[in-house]
Amino acid sequence: MATRCCSFEVHARCGEARRGTLHLGHGAVQTPAFMPVGTYGSIKCADPRDLDELGAEIVLSNTFHLMDRPGTEFVAARGGLHRFMGWDKPILTDSGGFQVFSLRERRKIDEDGVTFRSPLDGTRRRMSPESTVQHQIDLGVDVAMVLDDCAELPGTPRQVRAAMERSMRWAARAAAVPRDPDGGPALFGIVQGGLDESLRSESIDRLTAMNFDGYALGGLSVGEAPEAMHSMVRFAAPRLPGAAARYLMGVGYPEDIVISAASGVDMFDCVLPSRNARRGNLFTSRGRLIIKHARWRDDDRPIDEECDCFTCQRFSRAYLRHLFVCGESLGSRLMTLHNLRHYQRLMARIRTAIDEGTLDKLVAWAVSKDSEGNRPSFRRAD
């Protein structure tokens, strides 16, 4: 059932980790790759030229929210999402399955799909496995995701199995939606099963039989302990088809990305770098820097002396703190550029480490904790 609108090739391996290239309609993506999140077709505080300069090769938008506003027909009438948002590189759209999970007070699931009340105006809307794929076709994206049912964790074994079973039935229906074999989009299936290895194995087997263009691990980073997530990723990622790209949805912190890449994951997305930047929480090579703290008031150093981003090359911690406490929008923009560049630099380090066979050094950093038990991203920068 897969189209030939994408291909994936592996160039180097280091244990389970792979460095590769994902070829899509709007260009090639070097993997492991991190996708900045632009829910409504816009990464907050960063424009397409910024993203290009920061090293991003693919971005993520959300079908659920674009369907709600401005509407996929509206976007299609203006030449598709690439033209609408001014981005000429690949776009992946999440189906809305996570919103079905996170807006559970506003939705009702049945076998045919999901009915929900719009978070914007309360209007009743409907999503089905078929309509979700069609919305993504109309948007003209490079990678579409199937609609899935994400179980709450910790859930009962019965609840987790029911969500996995429904996700597999919906995946089969999504795979049957006609797509242009040349113009895409590629369609990725989503593995479910919570923290149950037997359910994850069953989900992988059933999805693999449907012959998707790529495969994602869903239903993780939804409140479980990091160690539980890492354990499941180490179990599930190597069991996914080796000839297809592997995507871990909604992850995450830098150390989680390193550990998951070492387990064989090729693609990541998360709102963390941009959302944290707007809140004044910055990622650095030494740990976390909270810009509002008074200790940075007179600090003329950049956020991170090892960073090559525009912000670190031109502006001091003192200036960024001034912007933040004054509520100046420029502060959010400059800090967003830094955090996004931090993530792209991390992905480049991972790819180089795979090539050189030294990924174990990054993994050792990722699993380390300081004397207070803090993980790398939560340590204080200075």
Could you describe the 3D structure shown?
This protein is α/β, with parallel strands linked by helices and 382 residues long. It has two domains: 7-270, TIM Barrel, CATH 3.20.20; 276-378, no CATH class. Helices cover 40% and strands 19% of the residues. It is built from 15 helices and 16 strands. It has an eight-stranded parallel beta sheet with strand order 4-14-13-12-11-10-6-5. α9 runs parallel beside α10 and α11 runs antiparallel to α14 (329-356). It is globular. The N and C termini lie far apart (53 Å).
Give the CATH class of the largest domain: Alpha Beta
Structural class: alpha/beta
Unreliable runs, pLDDT <50, ≥5 residues?
A: none
How many discrete domains? 2
In DSSP terms (H or I, runs of 4 or more residues), the helix count works out at: 15
Instruction: Tell me the total number of β-strands.
Output: 16
* Largest sheet data: 8 strands, parallel
Helix content: 25-40%
Envelope shape: globular
> Gyration radius, to the nearest Å?
20 Å
Query: Oligomeric status of the shown chains?
Result: single chain
Return the CATH architecture of the largest domain: Alpha-Beta Barrel
Give the amount of beta strand, in percent: 15-25%
How is the largest sheet built, in terms of strand order?
Answer: 4-14-13-12-11-10-6-5
The end-to-end distance, rounded to whole angstroms, is 53 Å
Query: What is the CATH fold-level name of the largest domain?
Result: TIM Barrel
User: What integer is the average pLDDT?
Assistant: 94
CATH superfamily of the largest domain: Queuine tRNA-ribosyltransferase-like
